[in-house]
Amino acid sequence: MLRNLSALIALFLVSLTTYAQISDSVALRSIYSETLENSKAYNWLRDLTTTCPGRLAGSDAAAKAVEWAKKTMIEAGADSVYLQEVMVPHWVRGAKETGTIIEANGKKQSVPVIALGNSVGTPKEGITANIIEVHNFDELKALGTEKVKGKIVFYNHPFDEKFINTFEAYGEAVEYRWAGPSEAARYGAVGTIVRSMTNAQDDFPHTGAMHYYDSLPKLPCIAISTNGANLLSSIIRANKETKFYMQTNCQMLDSVKSYNVIGEIFGKSKRDEVIVVGGHLDSWDNCSGAHDDGAGVVQSIEILRTMKALKMTPERTIRVIAFMNEENGAKGGKTYAANLNGEKHVAAIESDAGAFLPVGFGLNMKEEKRELIRKWIPLFRPYGLWNFDNDGDGTDISFMEKYDIPCIGLNVNSQRYFDYHHAASDTIDKVNKRELLLGSASMAALAYLIAMHGL
């Protein structure tokens, strides 16, 4: 009798598990269908990038984007929409930069350049100096003060093409943008140029944040397009007496008030447990910020619309956040993480890798929670998601990691992202509508599963 009872209980539990899997499968199919057929995300992205391009934190465009995000979340049907105050840096580029190669024979060639974010400007008359090319910090150190002092240092460090994941190539090269100016200042340089952070060979210079060491002089710094870098390198090889002229007009002003924009769908039975989903609202000032990261913002807001359209009420609260100031300070993510106020955050998901074909999720969390998510992989395979092995998440949500909150990043095919990253070419015509929507549906599906079952 006891053996029969145990068998019946086991069969009942298996039946419950099977029913739950079928129910989840139906829910995910509904989410994907609704998103792919009726989404407003692509139109929202067109509107955002057209009406609020150049959304650098502290700018008028960023302030306008805050109002845009608030309005759009209300339109999407959020149960609650509110703003979280954030003090952000206010760096301004000023008039367009100038970069000119001056060959030993006096011939001058203009090349596409752009000031790096947070950089100081040059003197009004600009800087003209001999240029010295290095490929890494070891070469710079070997040259020392004797050969570097008074010169402009040119960091010509291309992406390593062997990396399949281009984010790995970026991670290996970006230190020359971030720390290059201070390392050059250590040896007496007067300015720096860095090869743009991209695989692409074109004339678009890519900006991005840099950082000064407080103990060293602040040098003006620019990025040069990859075509420009190749030209400059070839001229230097032909004659070491090559000079460069650079003139920029940027400056850092006092910090200003801005906002994270937050919209929620309240949980049914566990409203006080929160799943965060988001992207960053700001972009660099030289572009419309379609892939980086208007896409992540509209993908996240679309989750609100999709769930409301399907009349889905999750067990836990889903909170969509359009973070401010990821690009040159990450104050939005830092502010949110510093003000959790004891709320239970079950997980956080971010899309900040472009609106490309989704292939899975990066899971930054304890192994036991990874395994809980990996049990859902069969539910995602019909939609082309298979890679749940990486641990990447997103800058904005990464500040929650220290509170032991599971952090998740939408993992996409990365091959084209750095063609447009931080460049004027990051425009909506580079965004494939279907890939954008598949990314949104994938995040909605994972948010739904976590909201229903927890972690």
Cα-based radius of gyration, to the nearest Å = 24 Å
Q: Write the CATH fold name of the largest domain.
A: Aminopeptidase
Strand order of the largest sheet: 3-2-9-5-6-7-8-4
Question: What distance lies between the first and last C-alpha atoms, to the nearest angstrom?
Answer: 36 Å
The CATH architecture assignment of the largest domain turns out to be 3-Layer(aba) Sandwich
- Overall 3D geometry? elongated
For the record, the CATH class of the largest domain is: Alpha Beta
Overall SS class: alpha/beta
Q: Into which percentage range does the β-strand content fall?
A: 15-25%
**Helical region count?**
15
Report the CATH superfamily of the largest domain.
Zn peptidases
Q: Number of domains in the coordinates?
A: 2
- Characterize the largest beta sheet: strand count, sense, and whether it forms a barrel: 8 strands, mixed
What is the helical fraction, as a range of percent?
25-40%
The helix-strand sequence is HHHEEEEEHEHHHEEHEEEHEHEEHHHEHH
Average residue-wise pLDDT: 95
Show unreliable segments.
Answer: 7-19
